[in-house]
Each structure stands twice: as C-alpha cells, then as structure tokens.
Design brief:
This protein has 15 helices and 20 strands. α1 runs parallel beside α5, α2 packs parallel to α10 and α7 packs antiparallel against α8.
C-alpha cells in the first residue's frame, strides 16, 4: 500500500507487526481513526490457539471504543458468578455475583470467551475495514528508521514503508529484543496446564467462573463457546503435575482433573518491565510491551486498552511519532497490573496462616467493599 497525499504531504500507512489479538485490535484502532493500515503476520495463515480468557469491564469498554463489542458479545459467555473455593475441603469461600449489580457498578459487563473465538470476532471486524490490508507469511528481518518513516524488509523479500510501526508480535517479540536487547521474557517458575473438555454432567456451578485455591497450586475453570465446553487451567510449580494435585485435592477437584484426557502445559513468564514502550517510530503493544503472568486475567484486556489509547492518540490528531508517548504513559497502570498479577498468584496458592487469613478476609468483606477494591482496574477509561 503506497503512501497517500494529505495536505500536500505524503502520509504513509501505519504498519502493524503481528496478527494476534493485540495486532488486530491495533488495526481497528487505526481504521477507527481513518488511517490506512498494513498488518504483517509471520504465519502463513491466521490461527489463534490457546485456552479461554476473561474479559472484565475494562476490556469490554475498550472493545466498544474499537467498534468490536457487538461482534465479540455474540461469541462471549456471561457467567453468573465467580465462585472461590478451598481446593482441599471443597467449601465455598466467596461468591461474587456478576449480575446487574456488578455491571452497573463498573458500567460494563464481565464475560469469558475462548481465545480463538475472540480472535475470529476481531478478524471479522478487520475484514470489513477497507483501510486495513493483511499480509500473511511475512517474517520481518530488517527495520530502518528515518526522519519521517520506517522501512521494513521481510525474509520473503518484500519491503514496506510506514509512518510508524506497531510491534504486536507477542511475549517473545523479536522487534522488542532488537530495540531493547535485555528484554527477553523471563520464566516465572510456574506451569499452566490447560485443557478444553466437554461439559461434565452434574457438576455444581459449572456455568460460573470457578477458582479452587490450594497450597502451592490453584485451579480455574469456566464454560466457553457454543456449544459450551469447559476451559480448565491448573496452575502448579515446575515439576508438579495435575495428577499430583488431584492426589491431595478434594473429591470435586480430583474428579475434574482426572477427567482430562490430555493437558497442554505452558510455562508462565513475563516481560521485564520497561520504562517506556516506544523508541522513535516504533511502538510496542500488548504482550510485546508488557506480557505478564496471567493470574489477574488481564493479558488480553491490557492489549485492548493499549489499542484504545492508540485510537485516542490518532483521533485527537497528535503528531507522530511524538503522540506515541501518550500510549507509553500507560506504563504506571500496567506496572500496577503486573504487580497485582504476581500478588494474586501468591494469594491463590497460599498455605498455612496466610491461606487462613485470606479465607477469613474473603468471607467477611462486604460486597461493596470487595467490588470497591477493583475500581482502579475496571473503571479505567482510555
């Protein structure tokens, strides 16, 4: 796609590296602001894999800004509650209602979805946009920055010129490591064992988001898709398997874990916290900028928020590349989410007196106070 003239000046398209959730959201942000956009995806075909994900009110709000909420709402599931339980005794510690009280409190609902379904919904929105060109099978191997543009070269021999580059190429971003050499993702010492199974019959609260907290581990499950299937994540230390956890958990957890025919393990990791996400005409977005451990269920939400902020920068007419600093100003918020994610992982897997104190606090805290603790997260508006 060649640059177009605007006011006598050539305006090059915006180039996005990566066609995952963050990359597609960024493309929608650019199109919403009236900008021509090119997506360069390394894979020969778009194929989003993975498990389920949770979309809190902040993620829903970002999707609305990007004009994608109606498409996503059609594939998302509305769980009636989050149910927290002791993984050894099976007792309910707290039930958080995700009804109108929750939605009214934050101005948007809470939903869950399969990652592939969310990707497909965003892709449907992207394909309706005439201002977005998609190129698959394009592995970026060269990046040159100039006073008024960037030039990318690919392994396949193509060359692309853009006003800026949005690097949304994931946790293991090669572009990030090219510009920030010491930023390789770091292992967190935990393994996410994931599975997607048919809905087990007779299971209590199977339509809810369920969190089972045990010493050194925790298990999360909720329904996704249509027809619904059960998304399960078993979080354990390295060297600890779901079989090991089933042996020490309550009957309900044991039965659930033993139902899974095959687990897909994924090493939890995070990107070292950067002081900014832009360098000259390159902006990091989503996991490429700030990938973190998933214990706060905010990975997709942070990428969507990044895209919504990029949309605001472009629509407000802030000059590029200087306007990219506005997206980088989200660093403080994302650092807070990063710290909360690490903290939640420790809380969910606590043992002894810490676990006892956690359970007491969760049981006695009034609903309004409990929801108030999350206002800083869910009330965010780009």
């Amino acid at each position: 796609m060649a640059g177009v003239a605007k006011g006598g000046v050539i305006q090059h398209p915006i180039i996005i590296a990566g066609g995952g959730i963050g990359g597609l959201a960024a493309a929608l942000a650019c199109a919403k602001a009236g900008r021509q956009t090119i997506i360069l995806e390394r894979a020969a075909a778009f194929e989003e894999v993975g498990a389920g994900l949770q979309l809190g009110p902040n993620a829903v709000r970002a999707l609305k800004i990007l004009g994608a909420w109606d498409e996503v709402a059609a594939i998302a599931t509305a769980p009636p509650a989050i149910v927290m339980r002791d993984a050894r005794s099976g007792s309910v510690i707290r039930r958080v209602r995700l009804t109108e009280v929750f939605s009214n409190r934050y101005g948007a609902p809470y939903r869950v979805a399969h990652r592939a379904d969310l990707h497909a919904a965003l892709m449907a929105c992207v394909r309706r946009q005439k201002k977005i060109d998609i190129h698959t099978g394009q592995e970026i191997v060269g990046l040159e920055q100039y006073a008024d543009h960037v030039r990318l070269s690919t392994k396949q021999g193509t060359s692309h010129v853009g006003e800026i580059l949005v690097a949304a190429d994931g946790m293991n971003s090669g572009l990030r490591q090219k510009l920030w050499p010491e930023s390789a993702a770091v292992l967190a010492g935990q393994v996410m064992h994931r599975a997607l199974i048919d809905m087990p019959p007779g299971m209590v609260d199977v339509d809810c988001v369920n969190l089972w907290m045990g010493p050194g581990y925790h298990v999360v499950h909720y329904p996704v898709g249509s027809p619904a299937r059960l998304n399960i994540i078993c979080v354990a230390h390295v060297g600890q398997s779901p079989h090991d956890i089933a042996a020490v958990a309550c009957a309900e957890v044991r039965s659930l874990l033993q139902t899974v025919p095959q687990w897909l393990p994924w090493d939890a990791k995070h990107v070292p916290l950067l002081s900014r996400w832009h360098r000259d005409r390159v902006l990091l977005l989503g996991d490429a900028a700030h990938g973190t451990v998933p214990f706060f269920a905010q990975g997709a939400a942070m990428a969507l928020e990044d895209a919504a902020m990029l949309c605001a920068v472009l629509r407000n007419g802030l000059p590029l590349p200087h306007g990219l600093a506005e997206v980088s100003n989200r660093v403080a918020r994302v650092k807070a989410v990063h710290k909360a994610s690490v903290r939640q992982g420790k809380i969910y897997s606590a043992s002894g007196l810490i676990a006892f104190g956690r359970n007491v606090a969760l049981r006695v805290l009034p609903e309004d106070a409990f929801l108030g603790q999350l206002s800083w997260l869910y009330d965010y508006r780009p």
